[in-house]
Amino acid sequence: MAGGGDALRALLRAANALLQQHRYRAALAVLKGFRNGAVYGAKIRGPHALVMTFLFKSGSLREKLKSIAQATYTHSRNLAYFVSTYKGLMALQSRLQGKQIPFHSFFAACIGGWLVFGENNPINSQIIMYLLSRILFGLSRLAVEKGYVPQPKQDPFPLVAALIWGTVLWLFEYHRQTLQPSLQSSMTYLYDDSNVWHDISDFLIYNKRTDSK
């Protein structure tokens, strides 16, 4: 028993010594990026898939749990692949050119995005739309910081909020098919289902009455 403990401690010491080796830092960063991408993807997608599945999807409990597990796995896997691909390409470019330049980040992420997130499926679509909104905000702030756009005299956020909500509800009411399915489900629950009831049960307690009355 003691021999097994000594072997384990020796293995841990060897692993820690390896992690301190500077020449392996780039490769180890790729592995750590893969690990962090997998963990973060699972943490983000798991709760989201759980809520959305039980709120809006029909089917048996087994089917719902399978859907949650599949969505969580896909998000976790894709993010792990992307982070490790990005970091690997960043290290490769830096090694080839002897230094890191801003274009390296753009190029590495473009390649990773094409390879990992290029398939048009619900998970990738949600991730891309999430990033797009952040990019638009980020580019707007950058344009002001660089002087390309004058600093607004008043906070533009109320106007942005008004235009976004106005546009999305117009699309939902008249061009619903253009919206992402999960957004359609959410808005159907909020704006369509709230127009329908038969008695107190599906007015306050349930969203939709399930009996044949």
Automatic annotation (TrEMBL):
GO terms for cellular component: peroxisomal membrane. InterPro entries: Pmp4. PANTHER family: PEROXISOMAL MEMBRANE PROTEIN 4. This is PXMP4 protein.
